[in-house]
Amino acid sequence: MTVARRFTFSRLLVWIFLAAIVIVSLFPFFWMLIGTTLNPNAVVAGVVIPGKEFPLNWNKAIKNYNLPVYFLNSLKIATLTVLLGVLVNSLAAFGFEKYRSNAREKVFSVFMLSLMMPQIALVIPLFKLMSSLRLLNTHAAIILPALMSPFIIFFMRQNFQMFPTEIMEAARIDGAREIYIFFRIVVPSMKASFVSAGIYMFLSQWNSYLWPLMTILSEEKKTLPIAISSMMRAYTIEYGAVMIIVGISIVPVLVLYLAMQKEFVSGLLGSVKG
Amino acid sequence: MIAPAIILYTSFNLYPILSSLNMVTRKWQGMRTTYIGLGNFARMLNDKIFWQSLGHNFLFMGIQIPIMIMLALVLAAILNQVRRGRGTLRTIFFLPCVTSLVAYSVLFRMLFQTNGLLNNLLMKLELIQSPIGWLNDPGWARATIMIALTWRWTGYNMVFFIVGMQNISNEIFEAAEVDGANKRQQFFRITMPLLRPVILFSLVTSISGTMQLLDEPNVLTWEGGPANATMTAALYIYRQAFVLNSDFGYAAALSYIVVIITAGFAFTQMKLLGRRD
Amino acid sequence: MKRALFALMAIAVLFVIVPSLSAADAKTITVWCWDPNFNGYSMKEAAAVYNKSHPEVKIQILDVPENIEGKIEAGLQAGGAGLPDIALFQDYVIEKFILNYPNAFVDLKAAGVDYSKFAVYKQGPMTEGNKIYGIPFDTGSTGLWLRADYIKAAGLNPDSYQKNMTWQDVINLGAAIKAKGGKPLLAYDTTSFDTLRIMVQSTGTQFFNKDGSLNLRTPAMEKSLAILKELNDKGLLYNAEGWNNWVSAFNNGETVGLLNAIWIIGTLKSQPGNAGKWMAVPTPRIEGVEGARNASNNGGSSWYVFSSSKNKAVAIDFLKSVWASSTPDALNFYNTILKGAGAMGTYLPSRSGSNYTAPDEFFYKQQPVYKDFAAWMENVPTLLYTPNYVAMRDAVKNAILLMFKGELKTVGDTIAHAEAEYKQVTGR
After folding, report:
1. Closest CA to A217 of C75, C101, C306
2. Which among C5, C96, C424 has CB closest to B246?
3. Which end of chain C is more exposed for a tag (fewer CB within 10 A), N or C?
4. ipTM score assigned to the predicted complex
């Protein structure tokens, strides 16, 4: 399918359109990078020429704010959520898809309904629950509720549809136990789907804000989004340092996405077969 | 196999929701609770601010989601035909959605403030005469929220559409070409219908996201301002519970209304999604 | 499969248990406040004074600029888990906590603090019957801050405005400067309630009745809104959205002045280039309202000890011996934070300190601003907040914004709109 040469004018329009979208998409990032080199007044004034204050801003970000602590906290929370969450959800999805029963379908519908559940409805009672479990101000309070995700179950179930049931049956005949089938046969051959689910879970946990804001009380347990937003509420805002922390908060997700782009996209492929 | 998911679901989803039924019938402030029966629901009926907030959710849904989905479809259709630089462009368009909510709200607030970069730029280009109140005029503030949402999520949906389009076999298009269908006809007659499940999937996630909208109006437009113009249901509930007079009972009752409404939505969508071709 | 799963679950549980095992050091006092250059700085100075006589006590001061009340609410719900020993509360928010969480705070009157030595207006919100829970920290005594150089540039004499003015005088001044091509008179934060609050409180009028019901239909409200409307209609306000834009408006010389409390002084001084330009005059008086005077208050906060604190005795002793004592060390401490951060305490004996009366180089003609604000503080009327203060504040703030936009035409409409929103939001 090549676009015929004779449509040069419309081709030009398409390229202008694409260029505009590229600029709009990238501009905030570009501005953020410049911001890391400016003093706070210049950031507010909207200067778009790089300055020389990067080292100063970097020092502030490291010394005045516990950047490494926030970073490690975020990383720990997101990683644990992904590891445990992908396991729990993919097991459930596999169960729903390959061991169907009426009861299971009912449970699945209930799960799907809660996909639409507004988080805020959960926040208050969940908060009370966490407080009675004495889990407030712990990272567990952030991880536990995020593990089971109806969206990921739905997503993985779509993916498992592609997995041929015959292979499982053959393995069973060979005497393999279900646990073996799942970890040794299903997981290796569905890597891309797991990667997609993992990236998705990482992204949403890495960026989560409201719930950690409510449950985390002490400085040494703060996550990056919480740190950024509290820096923005301060009486004097160190914009340059904020820009650095914002930039750093983007790096892991970006690296993850770029490194696993292929798997991510082909994992999505499995879920949107329809 | 389903057991762990069920356990987690019951403890951190189902149980809290059911236990909050107890709060709904109470005025629940701090350590003081009083049983007031259906009092919270009676109060809700007179609470125009809440219904307006809910209205804003629907407004954002009705305007922003169609624009975003169309834009994403167009981008996907273009990228699907581009040969060189497809991967790079896809990554660039996807980039906005990897930024954290807080980070991008912060960037946008600085860009959109009255004396911010955007207004300066528009004035220099002489597109506008005086600064636009992106954040402090009710209409513009709503537009700003929608612009921000579109910036963040268009690329995300686009990736799904690209993948969906790649699944449509080329033979269909070739056959259509032989039959004399032009690109536009191909897009509307072939691509769109075959993408239906993917589009529905995008719709479901977008609608559920918009129903939960809280952080953008909280950070970007100062707690749903100006004058509640960008207040959403979720933000209003949050404020009732944690900012105003901490009435957890009333907040829980409001949540139930939102749950019932979204459940209605979800049900319709499930019906649509469940129909598999 | 189940075993693997349980192993993973066990890891999760470990993450839960390990942090709760690390018990706090018995001699550490944790304090929450929200501005490292102001109240955080003051607390640090206080800690240094206390450590001279009690070197074994470690006082840890944490900056919690976001959602501090939400976090405290969270901690109180959790029976004190995660809470510090001492926290700073805005005066306008504490009534809600005292009411909603009985016995959450230590009664400091019973612990022997002499309240006759603190400014009376600070004690209203922290009192419940015979109990008084807080140690008053700073005053929000207000004044009108003006740029003398801008007044001069308009051909006027700054000295002739250093007097008790009415709002009409102020509007005339603003119009005169504007007529000469000058800047707008006041920086106005459209997301904030401060200006109106200062105006209404200057008359001694309350936003609430004694029974807690709303009281917006007052001459003070009507006059204040009319003045705001006139200021805005005449282009005398520089509308900025949010605290940071508001600050950069006056710090970057976009306005002739601002109306706010003494605690803004640190922000003003953060721009050394403006030295010699600023002056402070008394809060303008609202003419024709009974009780109107040239003094008001905005903001101000106080320290509270949580009953859940494991080191209650130490925390109380710390607050008592530094913040509520007339020892030379303590008085010297108040004198230090005044100069260091512009933090003006409400402990009356401290007002004899040398920094209160010293001429201040930063101000026009070395005005001794602290002495002036301290003098104005004596006339500040007490304000009744009630637990619904925030709901009232936001409703009025929103109505003012709509009035500025021209959507609400009259003062009467504006009040009615605020009342309606308040009623909807609070259900009262």
Report:
1. C75
2. C96
3. C
4. 0.89
Residue positions counted in chain C: 428
- pLDDT, one tens digit per residue, over A235-257 is 778 888 888 988 888 888 888 88
pLDDT at C21 > cutoff 80: no
For residue C24, the SS3 value is coil
In the predicted model, residues of chain A with pLDDT beneath 50 are 1-4, 274
Number of Cβ atoms within 10 Å of the Cβ of B82: 14
A65-271 CATH pick, 1.10.630.10, 3.40.630.40, 3.30.1490.20, 1.10.3720.10 = 1.10.3720.10
Does residue A236 belong to the interface with chain C, where contact is any CB pair within 8 Å? yes
End-to-end CA distance of chain C: 56
Does C425 contact B49 at a Cβ distance shorter than 8 Å?
Answer: yes
The number of C-beta contacts closer than 8 angstroms across A and B is 240
CB-based contact A186:B1 (threshold 8 Å): no
Q: Are A223 and A70 in contact, with CB atoms under 8 Å apart?
A: yes
Cβ–Cβ of A219/C15 closer than 8 Å? Answer: no
Residues in B touching C387 (Cβ below 8 Å): 29, 245
Q: What's the rounded Cα separation, in Å, for the pair B105 and B68?
A: 18
Query: What is the rounded CA–CA span in Å between residue B24 and residue B256?
Result: 8
Chain C touched by A263 (CB under 8 Å): no
Does A160 reach chain B within 8 Å, measured CB to CB?
no
Q: In chain A, what residues touch C63 (CB-CB under 8 Å)?
A: 219, 234
* Shortest alpha-carbon distance between residue A274 and chain B (Å): 5
How are beta strands C186-189 and C237-240 bridged, if at all? parallel
Fold of C142-296+373-426: D-Maltodextrin-Binding Protein; domain 2 (3.40.190)
Nearest partner of C344 among C110, C161, C187, C138, judged by Cα = C138
C137 or A110, higher pLDDT: C137
Q: What confidence category does residue B277 fall into, taking pLDDT thresholds of 50, 70 and 90? A: very low
- C334 CA to chain B: closest CA distance, Å? 32
pTM for this prediction: 0.90
pLDDT tens, position by position, B138-196: 999 999 999 999 999 999 999 889 888 887 877 888 888 888 888 788 888 888 888 88
Superfamily of domain covering C24-138+299-352? Periplasmic binding protein-like II (3.40.190.10)
Which positions in chain B touch A203 (Cβ < 8 Å)?
A: 97-98
pLDDT tens-digit map of A159-179: 888 788 888 888 889 888 888
Best mutation target, B93, B100, B231, to test chain A (most A CBs within 10 A): B100
pLDDT tens, position by position, C238-272: 999 888 889 989 999 999 999 999 999 989 998 89
Backbone angles phi, psi at A66, to 5 degrees: -80, 60
Mutate to test the interface with C, among A218, A224, A226 (most CBs of C within 10 A): A218
Query: Based on the number of CB atoms within 10 Å of its own CB, is C23 exposed (0-12), middle (13-18) or buried (19 or more)?
Result: exposed
Indicate the residue type of A224.
L
Q: With 0-12 CB in 10 A as exposed, 13-18 as middle and 19+ as buried, what is B170? A: exposed
Give how far B201 is from chain A: nearest CA, Å.
Answer: 8
Q: Which of C2, C9, C244 is nearest residue A237 as measured by Cβ atoms?
A: C244
Q: Does A203 touch chain B (CB under 8 A)?
A: yes
Cis omega (within 30 of 0) for bond into B226: yes
A137 neighbors A73 (Cβ within 8 angstroms):
no
Distances (CA, A) of A240 to A54, A164, A224, A243, B98: 8, 53, 16, 5, 21
pLDDT digits (tens, 9 = 90+) for B197-234: 788 878 878 888 898 898 899 888 988 989 999 999 99
